[in-house]
Amino acid sequence: MIALAALALGLSSCAMTGGSKKSEDTAVEKEVIQPWDLGGRGKGNFDRVIPFSTTLAQLHNLGIDPQLSNSVHRIDQAQIRAYFDYDPRTRSEQPDGILTCVDAGDRCYGYILQEPLVERHVKKGLLRKKVESEFHVPKYEAVILIMREPVLDESVVTYTRWNDSPPPPPVSFQKPPPPVYFQGQ
């Protein structure tokens, strides 16, 4: 008898928490991935971002937020122009989302998403001491441009791009010091 009462109580509580289909959809929209990752869920969430439709709040609900993840970096207008190598002479070749962002000026900013792959190298140095070095190679790179709409008091995504094979980071070589010449007297 007690087992039957417990079963009835359990089923009634499940029915109360079940909710409608609408509440299930909003629960999916509010799912936050911390930290933002490359795995199937991260790429799947990136694919849910639709230019000129997705708002900043929806973007943050997908976990794409520089305050939630150290793999999401905010870029400003000057960095956007440099990143896309924007040139007014080749304006007709640029996608609409980039042009909208450039025309918006300071009202437009972007997010770059990079999940670095850390490579460590251990080698024997002088006197057989171990020397460790590490460098970061990004596994992927994604860009999202966002424009603030003052009339709507809302920010909207204008452009997205995913790149599975970004270029390697620039390698900086240090110049050797100039040779020292001794002048005889």
TrEMBL record:
The lineage of its organism: Bacteria, Pseudomonadati, Pseudomonadota, Magnetococcia, Magnetococcales. Residues 1-17 form the signal peptide. This is Lipoprotein. Keywords: Signal. Residues 163-185 are annotated as: Disordered. It comes from Magnetofaba australis IT-1. Residues 165-185 have a biased composition (Pro residues).
